[in-house]
Amino acid sequence: MEKVDILVVGAGVVGLAIASELARRDRDLFIVEREERYGMGASSRNSEVIHAGIYYPKGSLKAELCVKGNRMLYSICRENGIPHKRLGKLIVATNEEEMKTIEGLYRQGRENGAEGLEMIDEEMIHRFEPEVRAIGAIYSPSTGILDAHALMDHFYRKAKRNSGVDPLI
What we know:
By secondary structure, this protein is an alpha+beta fold. The protein is built from 5 helices and 8 strands.
């Protein structure tokens, strides 16, 4: 074959997600990957965290995509049986200086549209985790984890199904 309609470089989670959306039977789509199989690079060595969008500067593309991606990932996981958990996260402050830092993070996260953020006090922290010693915290209920390998398997199967051929070369 000398010509393809779409060539995706890299078969990690991003490449597979792109391929799964662009694959159709009336297009030649192929994914090139340097490893023996998909998902063997950075995508298989990440923390598998679904981030809320707290840490990125207000108005940045990273902030926008993180918040949108958070919602999309939970939806994709739920609709396709991909293992995931919405665990929530505490970002704690142990002194007044750290408290000022997390108050800024809280404002930034709210401005970014991170869902459900709350500033909580020491009493509430102990309800979440009795062993944590802190004077305040941000509670991020939309932070979670997922099985990145199951997510990549889903995207690969979808690309294969939509294209009618094994797209990985």
